[in-house]
Known about the structure:
104 residues, alpha+beta, 4 strands
Amino acid sequence: MRKVICAGVVSLLLAGCATGEKMRRLDAGMDRQTVEKQMGRPDGFSEQDGYQVLTYKDRLMSGWSWDRADYQVLLKNDRVVQYGPGVVRQNQANTGLVIVAPVR
């Protein structure tokens, strides 16, 4: 049971890390399908003057930061042209007391 709880905690931590780190793995020229496979379904989509913009809102910048950002991926002909963070929101770390009880 203890191993299951530890595995659950680790997977939650790893799942929370991410958008900024995932964004670093994008490359110009990637197709939209690959971007969505790596980043997940976008929170927003817009199209203007032949460009498409995938928007990922209020995502953690890294697994070790409480800061959040909106990320955009700019596509032309379903290929990545540019990508990166937009609005960045700095948050204070949650400094509340956490009590961990051993499980036997």
